[in-house]
Design a protein that fits this description.
By secondary structure, the chain is of the alpha+beta class. Among the domains are: about 15-90 and about 125-200 and about 295-370, FAD/NAD(P)-binding domain, CATH 3.50.50.60; about 445-540, 3-Layer(aba) Sandwich (Glutaredoxin), CATH 3.40.30. It has 15 helices and 25 strands. Strands 1, 2, 8, 9, 10, 11, 17 and 18 form an 8-stranded mixed sheet that branches. It has an 8-stranded mixed sheet with strand order 6-5-13-14-15-12-16-19. It is globular and about 70 Å long. The relative contact order is 0.12.
């Protein structure tokens, strides 16, 4: 176990010279909220040489496991932020899920059935570790000014900036921000100050989350039960976490009393019944953090309000089934970071930030759609719905078609931004999934010096990357076109020999093929043999210049 107890950390409030300034100090970017999304965004901006002020209204990290499932794509983002390796080392890696109906397994599924990826499909890691590691990364970045116990209590849009009123233990002061990123969670104070709201569907059900510490030799996998004998009529989800801790979610029903259900004396019998049922009758356990929650699938109508941009739970919310909350929030930050940096460096017009809202609103709708379907399947609200669900589960024991209808939470995948205005449509024929708008796929990589590594590690996070496949005359012609374009690109040569075969297959590449990738590693254009003018046009389009 880590020597640091991240749940007990308290960060000191420190008076800042801005509080004594005669006029509000101006900063390029102010990020509000030091949860996973705000921390990730601040790191990304700092790595792109953008100074950022990060304000948080508290002085602690999160308590309890909260968000625990971090997907492959999010881990790749954490790699770019400098702390992915640490999270994977601490977390519990998994890819296998099992679905049970009553007490019988109906089927299992593999979330990463193919080899050749650096990162696992998912890790389970308590949110306080994720926040702690991100906060420690920030401490090493002088361009991030993290201010604890600084609560935004006023906001005013002005010509050219936003004026923030900030409350501290020593009184209020004001800051001027070129842009404000609102990452302050589902009860977003900034959203309320702007008179905005998130709308959608609230689900009339309650769930108990409990963190259980026990020494049980259970395999590292996701287990989901529908109507088990140890919790009849309801559902149960079980995940392993770091430090021999297990996360259990018990569906309780709308009439459950949240206060009573959180009491250890009421949690213990539920856990005991589950362990007895799955063959661990003698295992002792301790109950740590517990919470009873309801949830909603909803979002703001617009993620951009002038110079204020909303990300994470402040902009959208989903049910916990499918691990789409924290993962989509970190991917919001990944999308916003490079765009803010490009605008502030004068490389792109302010219009580029409209694409943040458009792309991430689309992703939020996709997550909400999947989350709503999962919740409706897990918690049927009519007898007809329950009969349908149970029939599907029964059929799924023997029939593959029925398994496609089972929904215990379609697990988080990154959105393919097919309709993004930043994409250049294909002019050449390609097969496979790496179309413009898709997040880039990883693969084993052979460097020019003969060493081996991973393709995504070779891509640049501060400017556009051009992947050039193969060698010979076709590849040389593509390289000459890239140079003639005059666009400052990070060029990566991708081998097509046996060592590069997997990359070639995933990208449907042949000698001379070029992929243009944004700093957030989404494909924005591809060619079999590009011309310099096409490269210039595609890059300009991806920066909202055309």
């Amino acid at each position: 176990m880590d020597a640091i107890d991240y749940q007990s950390l308290r960060f000191d409030y420190r008076r800042h010279p801005d509080q004594d300034a005669a006029a509000p100090a101006r900063h390029p970017v102010v990020v509000v909220g030091a949860g996973p999304v705000g921390l990730a965004l601040a790191i990304d901006l700092a790595q792109q040489q953008v100074p950022v002020v990060l304000l948080d209204n508290d002085c602690t990290l999160s308590t309890g496991s909260r968000a625990i499932c971090f997907a492959k794509r999010t881990l790749e983002v954490f790699d770019r932020l400098g702390c992915g390796e640490r999270m994977v080392a601490k977390g519990v890696s998994w890819k296998l899920g099992r679905v049970f109906f009553k007490d019988e397994q109906v089927y299992s599924f593999d979330l990463l059935p193919e080899p050749g990826h650096e990162r696992p499909a998912f890790i389970n890691l308590q949110q306080y570790y994720v926040e702690g590691y991100l906060a420690e990364r920030i401490a090493a970045l002088p361009l991030v000014d993290l201010r604890w116990n600084n609560k935004v209590v006023g906001i005013e849009a002005r010509t050219g900036d936003v004026l923030l009123t900030v409350e501290t233990p020593e009184g209020n002061y004001q800051l001027a921000a070129g842009y404000v990123a609102a990452c302050d969670g589902s009860r977003s104070n900034l959203r309320q100050l702007l008179g905005q709201e998130a709308t959608g569907r609230v689900f009339r059900d309650r769930f108990l989350i409990a963190d259980i510490t026990m020494d049980a030799d259970l395999p590292t996998e996701r287990r989901f039960w529908f109507d088990p004998s140890f919790h009849p009529g309801q559902s149960v989800l079980l995940h392993k976490q770091a430090d021999s801790m297990w996360r259990v979610d018990f569906q309780l029903g709308w009439d459950a009393d949240p206060v009573e259900e959180r009491k250890p004396e009421n949690i213990a019998p539920r856990v005991r019944a589950m362990l007895d049922s799955i063959g661990f009758a003698g295992v002792q356990f301790d109950i740590g953090w517990a919470s009873v929650y309801t949830f909603a699938c909803q979002r703001m109508a617009h993620f951009r309000h002038g110079r204020v941009l909303f990300a994470g739970d402040s902009a959208h919310g989903v049910s916990p089934f499918g691990a789409r909350g924290a993962n989509s929030g970190v991917q919001d930050a990944d999308n916003l970071g490079w765009k803010l940096a490009a605008v502030l460096r004068g490389e792109a017009p302010d219009l580029l930030l409209d694409s943040y809202a458009r792309e991430r609103e689309y992703a939020a709708d996709e997550n909400i759609r999947n989350s709503t379907r999962a919740t409706d399947f897990i918690t049927p609200k009519s007898e007809v719905s329950r009969l349908f669900r149970d029939a599907v589960l029964e059929l799924s024991k023997r029939h593959d078609f029925a398994r496609t209808l089972v929904n215990s939470g379609r697990l988080s995948l990154p959105s393919v931004l097919r309709d993004s205005p930043l994409n250049t449509p294909d002019a050449d024929a390609f097969a496979g999934s790496m179309a413009p708008g898709a997040p880039a796929a990883d693969a084993p990589f052979v460097r020019q010096d003969g060493g081996t590594g991973w393709l995504l590690r070779e891509c640049c996070t501060t400017r556009f990357t051009a992947l050039v496949f193969g060698d010979g005359s076709a590849a040389e012609a593509s390289l000459q076109a890239l140079e003639a374009s005059g666009v400052p690109l990070h060029v990566v040569r991708v081998d097509l020999s046996r060592e590069g075969e997997l990359a070639a297959r995933r990208y449907d590449a042949r000698p001379g093929t070029v992929y243009l990738m944004r700093p957030d590693q989404h494909v924005c254009a591809r060619w079999r043999q590009p011309a310099a003018a096409a490269i210039r046009a595609a890059t300009a389009r991806a920066l909202a210049k055309a």
